[in-house]
Amino acid sequence: MNLDLSVIIVSYNAVDFLKLCLHSVFSACKSLQAEVFVVDNNSSDKSAEMVAKDFPQCNLIANKNNPGFSVANNQAIKKANGKYILILNPDTIVAEDTFTKLIAFMDANSNVGSSGIKMIDGSGSFLPESKRGIPTPWTSFCKMSGLSAFFKKSKLFNEYHKGYIPENKTHETEILAGAFMFIRKKALDKSGLFDESFFMYGEDIDLSYRIIQSGYKNYYFADSTIIHFKGESTNKDKIYRDRFYKAMIQFANKHFSRSYGFIFNILITIGIYFIKFISSIKPNKIEEVEILNDKNLLITNKLSNSNLNLPFPIIPVSDNDLCKFNEGTLIFNIQDLQFKHIIQVMDQYKSQYKYRFLFDHHKILIGSDKKNHKGQVQHL
To answer: Which InterPro entries does the record match to this protein (predicted)?
Structure first.
């Protein structure tokens, strides 16, 4: 059976965000011959049970342990029948035309093996990891030492996130983010699947690099935007940082050991200790994230739905009325709004507002204000 697309989502303890993700994915698959896999890595929040009940059209693989990101993706890839395979995080929202736009782009460019996409976080801010360069010793040192953060638009200091490439320009890039990798199946057949020695982090860098080595190009696709809330499957704590640094060194030892692996290790080690030193002198702040404030603006296409039984005051508005307000929490009623429309509003207004997604069917209000912290889920 030949299909247009196989979507693969590896989930781990992000059940409410997974609901939202799947809702957007199936909306984006309506005009396609597609299949959707959810591989659950033994979540404790009943993610697998939710998928089986609410999304029976999914191909569910419920692991009894957590074998890691690479193994879980490979489980589904081996069963996939799509011309293209999308590796997608569960804490994402795609637009209704995201898949059709990417398929058209890659059909027209047979030399493109894999594409990433423009990503914004839950506050509407652009995520620089949408496009990345090969982590050579110098590139990695600039990233780890923080130089890339000081010189965001510099080709010399910020090759890691390719800060010199405009976020709204489709452009060739080398490394894609594992949150969204749109891969040509023929390219994957040549490069091989995810390297299962990478448990979590680094596997996307390794696969992106091998796709290039197999003769294809990777691209950053800017003609569609998705939301990546981040932080739902893992906390950005010391354990995360240690795993990330270990994965970087693992990648270097695998691909660069004969050329400059020793230099890479020295520079990475210096960067690691620099980051740890900076972290040690920063005060630890406990942030109380405000879930809702007293200016909750419900965005809906059907004003009759503004009479929802919500436990907080709302001001129903259309997006044309937003110029009347300079602050507040925008609550998107996803039952009657297109995800594409929501993403456009967030990309336009960014941090002027806070954003929440009202999933009335599941009685859930979801949002995320900090990309390095878990988001907010309010059950109504």
So the answer is: Glyco_trans_2-like, Nucleotide-diphossugar_trans
- CB-count burial class (<10 Å; 0-12, 13-18, 19+) for 365: buried
Which segments of the chain does DSSP mark as H helices, in order? 15-28, 47-54, 69-77, 98-108, 137-145, 147-150, 185-191, 203-213, 238-255, 261-281, 339-349
**3-state SS of the chain: helix, strand, coil percent to 5?**
40, 25, 40
The dihedrals phi and psi of 202, each to the nearest 5 degrees, come to 90, -25
**Residue at which a domain ends, from 234, 265, 288:** 234
The predicted-structure confidence for 64-110, as pLDDT tens digits, reads as follows 999 989 999 999 999 999 999 999 999 999 999 999 999 999 999 99
CATH at residue 85: 3.90.550.10
Q: What DSSP letter does each residue of 148-210 carry, written as one string?
A: HHHSTT-TTT-TTTTTTS-TTS-EEESB--TTEEEEEHHHHHHH-S--TT--SSSHHHHHHHH
At residue 42, φ and ψ (nearest 5 deg) are 60, 45
DSSP at 353: S
Same structural domain, 300 and 193: no
